[in-house]
Amino acid sequence: MNAQLSSLIEDLDKVRKHSPLVHNITNDVVMNNTANALLAIGASPVMAHAIEEVEDMVSIASALVLNIGTLDSSKVKAMLLAANKAKQLNTPIVFDPVGVGATAYRNTVAEQILQQCKPTIIRGNASEIMALAKVNTKTKGVDSTVSSDSAIDLAKQLAKSYACVVVVSGEIDYITDGKEILEVKNGHTLMQRVTGMGCSATALIGAFVAVNNDVLKAAYNAMVVMGIAGELAAANASGNGSMQVNFLDELYKIDQAIIKMYFKA
Ligand SMILES: Nc1ncnc2c1ncn2[C@@H]1O[C@H](COP(=O)(O)OP(=O)(O)O)[C@@H](O)[C@H]1O
Ligand SMILES: Cc1ncsc1CCOP(=O)(O)O
Ligand SMILES: [Mg+2]
């Protein structure tokens, strides 16, 4: 087995053995999907966004996920407070800039998060990564209008500028620390038709970076798991309803044998 796959299987075992607590301050659309995705892979999710408790919650978590899908000023305050605490405790922060580029408010908040929270990992679709890098793309709300290939160079720049790992998702996922670029070829087009697939990817990255200090590998490993589970879910889906449910089942079932059989090098 190659070294990449050994690292993935090691991470998966650790997630299932330690069940790391992943604190999510996320959007109102996907709370259920992402909590279930984290449970299915073996992690422990908590959604908490009250400013009165986020610092306490992140203090007992192994990763913090910030997702700006449905923003309001209280949630932004909560994100900044939680991130500040996470930084003090050296807890990794994963940022999902949902819909950035679509409105001025989202752009301002995303910039604030980049500057003040210094995320460990950013995961977005190509339009979002381009918008974060201040390139004008026509964003279509939360969905990408461009292919992931078109954001590779900007993802690299962004990773360098903010000293973090950047994941651009799409038909091929690209994961970069500004120097190296890893590619994930697994996945299925039906994944785009289920809301919260990108958010689930970000949450799973939270689970993987909670058990692996090698941030680039952790992000890559989470995206391979996403891709394989997405492909297998689509194989038995008759539409987006069954796709959503099958995806959770495939996350639950994924193991060394499945990974070896379906991983696309
Ligand atoms: N055309 C595609 N082919 C295969 N997999 C895809 C495709 N589009 C998205 N995915 C997968 O769906 C998941 C969510 O990615 P994406 O749709 O880019 O995020 P978002 O929902 O934030 O826009 C990722 O795991 C990605 O690899
Ligand atoms: C539809 C929608 N609107 C605001 S947040 C959200 C969910 C986006 O989820 P994803 O980016 O994972 O598709
Ligand atoms: Mg998204």
Kindly name the structural category.
alpha/beta
Number of strands: 8
Provide the spatial order of strands within the biggest beta sheet: 2-1-3-4-5-6-7-8
What is the average of the pLDDT values? 97
Q: N-to-C SSE series?
A: HEHEHEHEHEHHEEEHHHH
CATH topology: UDP-N-acetylmuramoyl-L-alanine:D-glutamate ligase
GO cellular component, one term: cytosol
Family: Belongs to the Thz kinase family.
Binding site for ATP: 123, 169
Function: Catalyzes the phosphorylation of the hydroxyl group of 4-methyl-5-beta-hydroxyethylthiazole (THZ).
Structure characterization notes:
It is built from eleven helices and eight strands. The protein has 265 residues and is α/β, with parallel strands linked by helices. Strands 2-1-3-4-5-6-7-8 form an eight-stranded mixed beta sheet, with helices on both faces. Helix 1 (3-18) crosses helix 8.
Q: Topology, please?
A:
Elements: H1 3-18, E1 21-25, H2 31-41, E2 44-47, H3 54-59, E3 63-67, H4 73-89, E4 93-96, H5 104-117, E5 121-125, H6 126-132, H7 152-161, E6 165-169, E7 173-176, E8 181-184, H8 197-211, H9 215-235, H10 240-253, H11 256-262
Parallel strand pairs: 1-2, 1-3, 3-4, 4-5, 5-6
Antiparallel strand pairs: 6-7, 7-8
This protein binds adenosine-5'-diphosphate, 4-methyl-5-hydroxyethylthiazole phosphate (TZP) and magnesium ion.
